[in-house]
């Protein structure tokens, strides 16, 4: 979603009449700007040395852009903690919290959720006094302190194939799910694959109907019931997702930094971060600096993973943060072409966000034969025309092979290294 520019009035005669559609669009743009300003005030409150502002970018959501040209190695953001949650310790004062932690672990094991226990605990410790269990003395937040947390990124839904999730509500039809969650899959041109040699048509595998469906976390409803929480399950799940996708590890627990949570990832980032002596999040530019309105980016990955190949980096990001990286470094590797459908690039399937490609069946790689791609990887490649599938590594290998085939012969000797013939002597090969 992008921010609509302000509309200039024509010279003389006042504004021209606008259609109802134009008026509605202008009202939506004004409301969007107002909402963004309010979010920026909440998110960046308390930040110092600030040279960034919040903006909306299509496909990315809320991001941080430079207010001005920024020199290299200049600090552009110093953010205090937005909220820190500690895990229960061994002190007598924390005996009740420790008992509740152990009870929470038992509840989670009963539904086999794949989300870490710390995320559920942090979410329950982020409730207001009115939402906490009436009979327990849990740490809580004011409604004003909780509100900015709900501005942070979270996916609209997670796939029903994940352990501990089910379609919501049980027995509901597609019409019952929110419109921002359902995105119908573009159906392939045909349900049958025609063999090139004129043989009988090959039956297609069973195809999913929807790309994404609204699902619910079974652990959420179980926790609400066990602890008699006075919060709507949907809101508690939002808080769990906020902690899962935005939190930083902290000594003894987890921590949220509101402003820094708006920073996008890049495998070739233009900024780096560190903690200062007061445990504030400090963001500084790299040597090249930033130009006005350039997006500030950091790496979500540790240095070792950042040094790996494109498919390994993309898979690590998809597993932990559920997105397919399209930064300028990753985009140097093109999408692999389907080996069966000439000239057609394959599509990315995000494992944790999308419904199973073949309902009731596992996906295996056509090249290496690795099984259960949707369970083993954060993403995989799929062709919707012929049901071809590749794991991330085989997809990368296909891309590299295709790139080599596309390379054109050298037409000029300028800047080239002399090539010698391996069959004859050490004489250079004639290029005439």
TrEMBL record:
This is SET domain-containing protein. InterPro entries: H3K4_H4K5_MeTrfase (IPR050869), SET_dom_sf (IPR046341). It comes from the Eukaryota. Residues 1-22 are annotated as: Disordered. GO terms for cellular component: nucleus.
